[in-house]
Design a protein that fits this description.
The structure holds 2 protein chains of 2 kinds. Chain A is α+β, with helices and mostly antiparallel strands. In chain A, helix 5 packs across helix 6 and helix 16 packs parallel to helix 20. The two termini of chain A are about 35 Å apart. Chain B folds into 2 domains: about 70 residues, Ubiquitin-like (UB roll), CATH 3.10.20; about 80 residues, [2Fe-2S]-binding domain (DNA polymerase, domain 1, Orthogonal Bundle), CATH 1.10.150.120. In chain B, helix 2 packs across helix 3. The chains are: A alpha+beta, B alpha+beta. Bound molecules: FE2/S2 (inorganic) cluster (2 copies). One FE2/S2 (inorganic) cluster sits at the interface of chains B and A.
Chain lengths: ~725, ~150
């Protein structure tokens, strides 16, 4: 999902559609108040009355109220990464709006207008593509809106349009005439929509918001006073809450259920059986959960997966002893390895990881005679619409998705099989009740439902010649495919899943290189993308082993990398910047160590230098991380910084203490006491340096993650002389 | 059962063992207090009981009858400390997904109530019960210190 292929033809097609569909509407009047949901919704919240009216005439990314509020309709879900603010920035800048008049709201689900150009037009958020695929499109929308507002003023005032200017939301003419956007909106709507050729996008020197520091996030108010609406907070008339008992093993199914005790609990309204789950529906969460816990269920485990993680890893290790599917081959690696003066070998292993977003998975569904209404933090709307419509035998357009804020996702809410969405819809369907149903997973349900970052095993060998030059690199990977068997399987083109190996051995100029992949297909543990996907393991193996090769060559790790990055100027630039800012090479007191790693992911380049302290008792702390990022033009530098700092914290969390393990097929972890996220005292000081750039913006949500773990492991080596081949690192050096 | 929530007496039909979290969310319709773990591990459900920070997910309603319960909704309106923290949260663009932030602000309010000039170590230890999966910790620390300074 990381490649963005905007061919020229595709771009103009989409761009034309944008301009053609831009409308400035003044839709919200008092008479529509009855469409308001029960709970008053604030700015930026889907389900607000404005949005409902927007649906009646939804040809828009921008809507202007009579009071001059500018609503930016965002096609990308907000899960914390700042998409609402980022996209609003583009529009506000080209419109010359005042930032205070800008609000953001989620678009409806409709790929024809709100498709992600990086996903071939499918609507969805992920792969750190929101800004990259919106950068031009949203600026054009903003410029078109301004063009039409100016046109309206020109007509109204009977003055030439080219003498009219816009500044901070005020349209004015030197004669002294001025108007606010709201006063012109209705007239602007009747103006002809400009063609692409008529639009004059700003040059970077003209930007007023893009690239400027610290705009306030558009979603911030509700997130500091508790009014922001997440799925968990949806309340609808007659709504029931569903709590689900899932099969305890992957591949197990329901044999029988005795729900007598559950039904006796006050508030419980219904019990619904699915092939591999039983749901209890009640008037509130607590009753539903008590009902769920009172179910007496017999599971059929005859087809269940009953492995232990250690055995699974051992089988991966065995597979890695033989050649796998070739995914990269340069030169003659076998010969070069055989001729090497120094040969180094290492194996790395990576556990399953849960996303464990703060908001456990949930989804609100209401099946009506018109179709299906859904409220949730929707990340892949088009796929979810297709899957739900297939299940209910209705048209995809009848699946009406109200996208809400997600309380984190890290990839999980964009499930290519629509797992949690379909479960909610199946429960609603099987219940035969015509009321809205909020399915709520507990933390334990969320932790044990699978769709993990796959377990991986890497086996590496590399060789130096007698002059200590790196002449050969061989990397064999073993791990399940994320794409196989999903609607994303079309991305498997050369017989292997590209995200399994993305980044392995890259981008170093090594004359003989071989990357091979084994993809076990008989493991029913569901796997999924997890913030930075394949790079979560390939970066660790590559960057740790590169450090090991530097040592073998007797070179400084930064110096050694520089020699292999001559053709990768953007890697080199962030490597040098991070090293310089971190004082690379300067003395450190005993017990401290510094480590570095550099990784490109999602078309952005990040280098990180970690500094660690190892204490007498062997425990260690990560004190500081200095990070350099080149993400093209940084549209919101403060948002870029927040994503980098957050990425470091998220990655460190996994590197130190996260793993999902199976015992006789049962997931051993269940909640935050045994799946242990980073806490405030473990957070290092993170310093972010952004490389100035006029390149098109690339991703920032994920690229801060991959370099962290190898930088920390390399720092631990510097402090202790001990290499770390297994994640998580734990608390001891 | 009668509960005193944000200075108002609320008559709610609740089982005595129901955790306060669900009474607040599903019965009093105050959804600012979040569900994250249900076992006092994450702090997303932090409220104040008679001014002390408490995890609503493990607090049976029967145990808080007659006590003053304050949620993010009430503190936003009535607490100078909460408001100072919110201003600092805005100034530092603290939230990302935002789901943990009600709990963070409620914990930080309790912290500054007890320790108006909390040190880094005191912040780390008092706030250690509040997980942020988006890892906004660095700006949380900055914002707490800024709020403390503004209140001094
Ligand atoms: S929900 Fe109460 S501490 Fe997590
Ligand atoms: S802001 Fe997302 S969990 Fe804290």
């Amino acid at each position: 999902m990381e490649t963005i292929n905007l061919s020229r033809r595709h771009f103009f097609k989409v761009a034309a559609a944008v301009a053609g569909s831009l409308t400035l509407g003044v839709y919200w009047t008092a008479s529509h108040a009855e469409t308001a949901p029960q709970k008053p919704a604030g700015p930026g919240e889907a389900g607000s009355p404005e949005l409902k009216q927007g649906l009646a005439d939804p040809q828009a990314f921008i809507r202007i109220d009579p009071d001059s509020t500018v609503h930016v309709i965002v096609k990308h879900m907000e899960m914390g990464q700042g998409s609402h603010t980022g996209i609003a920035t583009l529009i506000a800048d080209e419109m010359d709006a005042d930032w205070a008049q800008i609000r953001a709201e989620n678009s409806p689900a409709d790929a024809s207008r709100y498709g992600n150009m990086a996903f071939g037009g499918m609507q969805g958020t992920g792969g750190s593509t929101s800004m990259a695929n919106s950068y031009l499109q949203m600026r054009q929308a903003g410029a078109a809106a301004k063009f039409m507002l100016v046109g309206a003023a020109a007509t109204l005032w009977n003055l030439p349009a080219n003498e009219i200017t816009v500044k901070a939301g005020i349209v004015s003419h030197p004669s002294g005439k001025t108007a606010k956007f709201g006063e012109l909106a209705e007239a602007a709507q009747k103006q002809p929509v400009p063609s692409i050729e008529q639009l004059k996008l700003k040059t970077p020197e003209q930007f007023i918001y893009i690239g400027k520091p610290a705009l306030q996030r558009v979603d911030i108010m509700g997130k500091v006073n508790g009014t922001a609406q997440f799925t968990q907070d949806v309340q609808l008339p007659d709504m029931l809450t569903a709590v689900v008992a899932h099969a305890p093993l992957f591949g197990a199914s329901l044999a029988s259920v005795d729900d007598t005790a559950a039904k006796a609990i006050k508030g419980v309204k219904a019990v619904v059986s699915l092939p591999n789950a039983v749901a209890v529906l009640a008037s509130d969460f607590w009753s539903a959960k008590q009902g769920r816990d009172a179910l007496k269920i017999t599971w059929d485990e005859s087809k269940a997966y009953k492995a232990n993680s250690a055995d699974q890893l051992a089988s991966y290790q065995k597979m890695a002893e033989t050649a796998g599917k070739e995914t990269t081959k340069i030169g003659n690696p076998a010969e070069a390895l055989a001729s090497a003066a120094t040969l180094v070998k290492a194996n790395y292993s990576f556990p399953y990881l849960a996303h464990a977003a703060m908001e456990p998975l949930n989804c609100v569904v209401h099946i009506t005679d018109k179709g299906c209404e859904l409220w949730y933090g929707a990340q892949l709307q088009t796929i979810d619409q297709a899957k739900v419509s297939e299940l209910l035998k209705i048209e995809p357009a009848q699946v009406n998705i109200h996208t809400l804020y997600a309380g984190g996702s890290f990839g999980r809410r964009g499930n290519p099989m629509s797992d949690y969405v379909l479960e909610a819809v199946k429960i609603a369907k099987a219940s035969n009740l015509s009321v809205p149903i909020k399915m709520v997973w507990t933390r334990e349900d969320d932790m044990r439902a699978g769709h993990y970052r796959p377990m991986f095993f890497h086996s590496l060998q590399a060789g130096l010649d007698k002059d200590k030059q790196l002449i050969a690199w061989q990397q064999r990977l073993v791990g399940q495919s994320i794409m196989a068997g999903t609607p994303m399987a079309m991305m498997i083109t050369d017989g292997y899943d590209p995200v399994s190996v993305e980044g392995a051995g890259e981008p170093y100029a090594i004359p003989n290189k071989l990357v091979e992949l084994h993809t076990p297909e008989d493991i029913p543990v569901p796997v999924q993308w997890w913030r930075s996907v394949g790079h979560t393991h390939t970066a660790y193996a590559t960057e740790c082993f590169m450090d090991e090769m530097a040592k073998a060559a007797g070179k400084d790790p930064v110096e050694f990398r520089r020699g292999l990055l001559k053709d990768s100027p953007r890697h080199l630039a962030v490597l040098n910047l991070a090293a310089e800012k971190a004082g690379w090479g300067s003395e450190l007191p005993k017990g401290k160590g510094r480590g570095i790693a550099v990784v490109e992911s999602f078309n952005s380049y990040v280098a990180e230098v970690a500094e660690v302290t190892v204490k007498e008792d062997g425990s260690f702390t990560v004190d500081k991380v200095v990070l350099a990022v080149d993400c093209g033009l940084a549209v919101n530098p403060s948002m870029v910084e927040a994503q980098m700092v957050g990425g470091v914290g998220f990655a460190l969390s996994a590197a130190l203490g996260e793993k999902i393990t199976l015992k006789n097929g049962q997931v051993e972890q269940s909640n935050f006491h045994d799946y242990t996220p980073l806490r405030i005292g473990q957070m290092p000081v993170v310093e972010v340096h952004i490389v100035p750039s006029q390149e098109n913006p690339s991703g920032v949500g994920e690229p801060g993650v991959p370099p962290l773990a190898p930088a920390v492991a390399n720092a631990l080596f510097a402090a202790t002389g001990k290499r770390r081949y297994e994640l998580p690192l734990g608390t001891k050096a | 059962m009668k509960l005193m929530i944000n200075g108002q007496e609320r008559e709610l039909d609740l089982a005595p063992d129901m955790p306060l979290l669900w009474a607040l969310r599903d019965h009093a319709h105050l959804t600012g207090t979040k569900f994250g773990c249900g076992m006092a591990q994450c702090g997303a459900c932090t409220v104040h009981i008679d001014g002390q920070a408490a995890r609503a997910c493990v607090t049976p309603v029967a145990s808080v009858e007659g006590k003053a319960i304050t949620t993010i909704e009430g503190a936003s309106k009535d607490s100078k400390i909460t408001q100072a923290l919110q201003a600092a949260w805005l100034a530092n663009n603290v939230p990302q997904c935002g789901y943990c932030q009600s709990g963070q602000i409620m914990s930080a309010t309790a912290l500054l109530t007890q320790k108006p000039q909390a040190t880094d170590e005191e912040i780390n230890s008092f706030m250690s019960g509040n997980i942020c999966r988006c890892a906004t910790y660095q700006s949380i620390k900055t914002a707490i210190k800024q709020a403390a300074a503004s209140l001094a």
